[in-house]
Amino acid sequence: MLPLGLGSFIRNHTSQQDSGVAKYKSFCTTRTVECLNEAIRLTKEAVRLFPKSHKAYPDALSNLSTFHRERYIFTGVIGDLTDAVKTAQDAVTITPEGDRDRPGRLTNLSNALEQRFTTNRNMEDLDRAIALSREAVATTEDGDADLPIMLNNLAKQLGEAHVQGNGNATLLDEAIEALSQAIGLTPCDHLGHKGIMLGNLGVRLHDRYLMKGTEPDLDESIRVTRQALTLLPPDHKDRLGIAAELSNRLGARYATTRVEQDLDNAIDLARKALQATNPGHQSHPMILANLANRLREKYARTKNVEEYLKPAISYTETAIDLTKADHTHLARRLSTLASLLYDLYLAKPMESVTNPNGQTDIKIASLERAISYARQAIDLTEPNHSHYAGRAQDLSQLLSAAGPEHLDEAIQWAEIAVENTSEGHSERAAWLVALASQLVERVVGYQSEALEHLQLGKYSDAARYDVARAKEYLLEAVSDNACNVGTRMKAGRCLMINADTFFLRHGEGEKAYAIAQDMIKSISLIAPRHFQNDDKQHILDSAVGLASEAAAIALATGKDPVHALQSLEEGRGVILGSLYDLRSNIEAVECEHPDLASKFKDLRNKLNAPSPQINDSSAMDMDRFRENEWQQAHADRRRETGRLMEEVINTIRSQPGFDRFLLPPSSSDLIGAAAEGPVVVLNVSYLRCDALIVRPSGIQSLPLDRINYYDVKAKAEALGPEMDSVSMLEWLWDRIVGPVFDFLGFTTMPSDGQWPRVWWVPTGRLVNFPLHAAGHHLETGFRNALDRAISSYSPSIKSIIHSRQRKNAGQDKNSAPSDDRDLVLLTMQHTPDLPGRGYLAHAARETAAVGQLANEMSLSCSSPDCTKPKVLKALENCRILHFAGHGSADSSVPLKSHLLLSDWKTSPLTVQSLLDLDLAARPPFLAYLSACQSGQVANDNSVDESIHLSSAFQLAGFRHVIGTLWEVNDRVCVDMAQLVYEGLKRDGFTDAALSAALHHATRRLRDDWVRNPQPAGQTADTVRPAELWHPEDKACVAHWVPYVHYGV
After folding, report:
1. Which of 335, 384, 604, 745 has its Cα between 20 and 30 A from that of 159?
2. Dist. CA 736–CA 726, nearest whole Å
3. pTM for the full predicted model
4. For all residues of the chain together, what is the average pLDDT?
5. Nearest-CA neighbor of 788 among 759, 753, 746?
6. Where do the CHAT domain residues begin and end (predicted)?
């Protein structure tokens, strides 16, 4: 939307003028063209009657110019625009310099020329309009009531010149300064004018943000646009347009921060603006287009084609149909439609339909339409236009997707995009990354993983030149502070994935290491503490694998293994790590700096507090825009709370002895985590794979030369349903676990009953592999993990450290015989609304067996209703939680993974709800989750965060969690539970007894299986599935494999 003008200057001296002005004012109220026609007729009559020497004559001409211009806007008749310019020019010509009315007449002529520019795109008209507005402002006396209007109109024209001139920063700064002056000079009771000026200032601040990437400009743009809405009454004609602009601003901030509240508020504003707009209103196409853009962003997050993508396409097509062929926004809307059709192309499976021309693939047709619209958009855009580069880049992307035969043209358009974007522009880095990607694609061939692995030895000089250019562009992008952090990280990822080709072969290892460390630091910037967990999860998807690549580069460049380990600790597990930080024991700070500790706890409580909800009844009475404003104000307060929290943390770190407060673990911290047994971090990257082994003696690295990234990926994809097959377990032993155990000296089964312990911290796709069960179980000789050591798992070393700190603080330190809390038994033998798989024949038998053993151990048991509120309440007085039922690992949003209680459809007990729970004051001992996939990460983009039900229960305060990596057999669940609790009955409720109980139970069931293995493809009992939509049972070869222990 172009910023709004505040009208022209109307003077009246005679009855004819009086009548003409009165009719014009009626038109402004009624918007009926008949009033405007009559205003023009009466004013023409006044002009005819006046002698040219009459003092009213130039006023009549100037008024007539305004009326013609308004009628042109209303009807589109070009003759009115011609008359508007001519009569305004005549009025200025006969007005001498120094005349007090000359500035107003200059402004009217400027407005007419600006309007003509919007039609003919002749920059001479716009340049002259600016010159006239500058003269009007310069010749208007200070204190003149009309000066704010003149400043606003000047700013409007300067902003348009900035847009048309491919980003002239000087013009933009002048426009912002003029608007700031205008707002300051406008009386407080002129709410309409002040509101419009604030809206215009929001537009220009956003333009500067787009140009320079300065986030304070974006935040200020949102603030002043929101203020503009509060000043304008609900029925103001410009309110909808400004609301649409606020929607755009919020959408822009979402694109940078990925805070979903911004996007949801933007969509809400756009939808309400659409509902309040008459289909014939001139703003209707703009509002449709704005809503389509916001829905596209929501689709990118949710991948919901029906709810977001298809409506966005429909709204954009309607907006285009309503847009005149010469309208300045037609190119923008065509470009948007092209992008939406590209999204549809990526989303749709290969389908065919019969049409008059025969069989046409719908997927390909979507791409062809997208390319056609993108070409139309760029044809309508002048090369010096500020959006030309972006549209060139859009076309380049589409051509690249169309196949290798279009790649050369795609690269040409990508080069044009870069050439037309000046250094320091916020989008330049993004265009550079895209161009680099296409250059590498041309070298390695048309494939989905073009940037992931380069081997250049066999390539031509032309190919080497392309790679050299790609490296140059990526290095420029990664160091560009004008772009957002996400773009720099994308460039960094490309460089790190190809570190061997780009750096190591050329002796530039230190440069690769420096980039890697910069990327690790950037991860904390994209997910600050004040972000909600779902926003953190979404944005951290873009950082998946970066920490593993950084660790690999550290090892490849000869750095001490501690640096590799610290990269992994800082760049992985950000969500859980942030929550651990906020729940850290700060007794030391309280003792020495009680004021700082008090501030920290106050801010911590605010950040931990759930988002407030608007009462439904009050929301119905609340003005729609003010409701959105209330929600946004809460988000702003949370952002400010996060800023204050960082200040307090930095102040604490500045105190003697607290320099490491809430920082990633130091070298000594990492080594201390191995006090009770080695910690093995398995790092998988494109460059190399290694085991980082932590023992009290230090940190060492063991290259895993028999696996690579592609091996692990192929195993995860091809053998996912049969991860517990004999061949998989043997592969894990031969390639990973066996070499690690040999390195540790775990070479045989302990003869003295003193079983060594090992904690596994896998990365990448290995997070779902059964490392504890690796081995040649059908052979003799103890060539398997179960016969050599007791295995436990952890998302990170920081998690181990946090659990140990609780233990060392004396919280639930041992068997605590005086602990009178309950063993909470949850039995979901029948799960409602789960067709075909809702009944578990053995679930009741399992909890009955556990209950019987609990009675024998003198543990009190309770069995609350299996609803979320009842269960959460029961956890407050819980020592052990045992759940027998179904689990769901959400493959799209891991935070939505949940246990299937009775109310799972309406109020599921999700990972997110568990992360909001803090039982640390009196931590429970064990959560036994006898349900499928309670320890699985079902989303490949979230493997670095290890967000699943087991880690959530551990963070909530449970000392130990027994979970599962995939589906479990209903009957075997009973056997496993009985054996585990028998072990606890025998050895007591200690940390060592719990891990040993699961280990020996697994060995017992393994031995039974060895004697009578389950044939592949044969499933005798119901499984407890996580993927509820899966149509058939999956064969489990070894039902004892998926059970795992988390804890210390």
Report:
1. 335
2. 15
3. 0.81
4. 86
5. 746
6. 729-1047
